[in-house]
Each structure stands twice: as structure tokens, then as C-alpha cells.
Amino acid sequence: MVTRIPSRSHEEPSIPTRQFPTTDALRRLLIVVGPTAGHVYPALAIAEAYRLATGTSVDVRFAGPVDGPAARLLAGRGLTLEPISASPLVNVGARGKLAALPRVAAGMAQARRLMRAHGTRLVIGLGGYASGAVLLAARALGARVAIHEANVVPGLANRLAAPFVHRVYLGFAAAAVSFPARRRLVTGHPVRADIAALAREPRQAPERGRAARVLVLSSTRGAPFLAMRVPALLAELERRGIAVEALHQSGEVPPDDVAHAYRRAGVKASVASYVDEIAGAYRWADLVIARSGAGTVAEAAVAGVPALFVPLADASDDHQAANAAAVAAAGAGVSVRERDWRGDALAARLTTLLGDAGAWTAASEAARRMAAPDAAARIVADCETLMAGRW
Fold first, then answer.
1. pLDDT digits (tens, 9 = 90+) for 312-354
2. Predicted confidence (pLDDT) per residue in 128-180, tens digit
3. Three-class SS of residue 122?
4. Are 176 and 350 in contact (CB under 8 A)?
5. Burial class (CB within 10 angstroms; exposed 0-12, middle 13-18, buried 19+) of 56
6. Which of 51, 95, 135, 199 has the greatest CB tally within 10 Å of its CB?
7. Beta partners for 309?
8. How much is the pTM?
């Protein structure tokens, strides 16, 4: 399995690096997001990179289903999510797939109306079950279409959409085998500017005499497992001589419940349902414990923080396990499935990682070798090539 982003294949499109003048025609761009935060943040990164590259000559809209956190996350930044009807196609059975067809048709109609009103010329899909309807509508209207596949194992929506798109951007080179060489481009996973800036900051192993800092990040789903297991794991580290302090993002689990678990374990911890200043949290951390969604994997790599990744047990096509395995194979951290969690064994591995400066530094450097802090800029540059003369 390929675990880092290599130089591009000679068969793949080149990546232009020029800046684009602000006097160019207005770029009308639609980004389609899925139902999780992991879809929204790369969309924001791409929009941010487009504005940096083109100044005010870009009009970015966002579309997707309204049954997740996307609308809230965008609204917090003064942005609007245009609603698109859709239904999941994974783990729903034949009856569920049939029931989804009317909603897909409705989503295509919504997308056509939105794109006509907006004058959309380019659509970028970031996965999720709403993307197919929008991408098909975009092709019918003559717009250029691109998708980004974030994971080692491509998702169903992107696999189905691939024959109809002009470009496939890849977060992991290992996903390339699933897409035609003439359309694919390995860019890495887009991260926001404040995260990308961490790539320029030096990292040092935990200093002797201070507690090791552990950042625990809960995903959109699956927070209870980490809330239940991590306090005891960190208590075991302390019994082995590694003083720790934690910053735990509890997600759907009430922060007071998680804080109580840490107090019972005798571990110093700050707990919040959401960490607003995530770049600062990565800068603070010596170790990340998290689910292995592509966004978290990419952010930890850019920050140069070793990680313990615990794949979400019911992730579609088990894609988080492949992401975590890539990190472990690269030497950038540890991967463990929920069913294989053994506190003593994990504590032994983390004791070596946090207690040996050489081991920590090697893992941090391995993480940085996986990083692609310029992924969003690469996508923008290639989109400009796709759209030459078409805006």
C-alpha cells in the first residue's frame, strides 16, 4: 500500500503553480459537500484557496443535504448551504435504494435550478450521497465537473460519479488504481490556511519535566468509544511513568460526563464539546487520539503530530481502517481497531512513543512526509487549467 504522496505519474496531468490575476472573468463555482464536518472543511479550504489565488473574482456557493452539521458550520462563517435532496445508498438494502430514487431526481431538479440562477460553470464534489445528483445535473448543463476522493478506499458516490467527471483529485496515491490515469491527479487533502501554516513550524519531542499533551478528537459519529476508553488508557500511561494532560473534544457526549471519567481516572484534562481553535490545539499536542477520517489524518500530518488512530467501526467500506493503516505503515503513528483495543498493549506502545525523544521525532517526521499543506492550492491551479476560456 502506498502511504505517502509521491511525485506524480507521467500519465497524470501536470500541476500549474501560477497565480491568477484578479481582473479575469468572475468565476462561478459550486462546491458540493456531504453530511459530515469532514466534507465541509476541505470545501472551505478550496474556497479559501480560490479567493487567495483570484482575489474578489470568485463567487463560491455550497450545496448539500441539510441533515448534518454542514449548514451550521457554514453559517458560523457567514455562508449558506443550498439544500439538495438526497438519500444514502450504503447500508440501506434494496428497498432503501429504490426509495432513494425520487429524492435523487428531486435533487437533480434542485441543482439545475440553483446552477442556472447562479450561472455555475464549475462544480467540485467532495463525496457524500448528495453529490451524484448535483454532478449529473452539472454535466447536463455543460458545466465542468471535478471530484475529490479523500480516502485510500474510494467512496461509493465518487466511484459512481467518476465516469462523468473531468478530473478526480486524490488525497492518497493508493486510491489512483480506482480511477482513469488521464483524469486523476494526486493532490493530497485540502486543509484550511491556519492548519497549512503549521507545516512551516518546527516540532520538538515532549520536553522532560512536563506532561505529555494529548489531543483527543471525536468525529461526527463514534464519540462514545473514545470517551469510554481514553481516560483509562491515559491513566495507564501515568502508571508507567508518563505524565499526561489531555484536551478532549467530546462531540456528542456531554462534556461533564467525559470530565468525570478523567477525574475518576486521576488524569488532568480539559473537556469541551467542540474545539474552536483547532490549529492551536494541534500546535499544543504531542499526540493525537482520533478517528481516522481523511481530514483528521491530513491535519495531523501537516502539524507533524504522531497519532493513535481508531477507525470508526461502521465506516462505509471500512475506509477509515485503510487510512489508519497507511499512517501506521508510514511510521507516523499507531492504528488499532475498536475490537482490538487492549489498554495495556496500547499503553506500552505509547510509552515508547512519548518517552523516547528519538521515537517521537521519527514519527513526527514520518507524519510530515505524508503531508500536503498545499493541496487546496494544487486543486485551484488545476481547476484553472480545466476552466481556461470557460468562465
1. 998 988 999 999 999 999 999 999 999 999 999 999 999 999 9
2. 777 888 999 999 999 999 999 999 999 888 998 899 999 999 999 999 999 99
3. strand
4. no
5. exposed
6. 135
7. 290, 335
8. 0.89
Mapped onto helix, strand or coil, the DSSP state of residue 389 is coil
pLDDT recorded at residue 55: 78
**Strand, coil or helix: 222:** coil
Q: Which of 335, 370, 31 is nearest to 186 (CA)?
A: 370
Backbone CA torsion sign across 384, 132, 62, 68 = negative
Superfamily for 27-191+373-386? Glycogen Phosphorylase B; (3.40.50.2000)
Nearest to 298 by CA among 191, 202, 378: 191
Residue 8 confidence (pLDDT) above 50? no
Q: How far, in Å, CA of 173 to CA of 194, rounded?
A: 24
- What whole-number percentage of the chain has pLDDT above 90? 75
Grid coordinates belonging to 23: 481582473
The x, y and z cell numbers of residue 144, run together, are 465542468
Q: Which residues of the chain form CATH 3.40.50.2000?
A: 27-191+373-386, 197-370
With CA atoms as reference, report the closest residue to 320 among 170, 151, 172: 151
pLDDT of 56 higher than 80: no
Task: Give the model's pLDDT for residue 5.
Answer: 33
CB 324 within 8 A of CB 311: yes
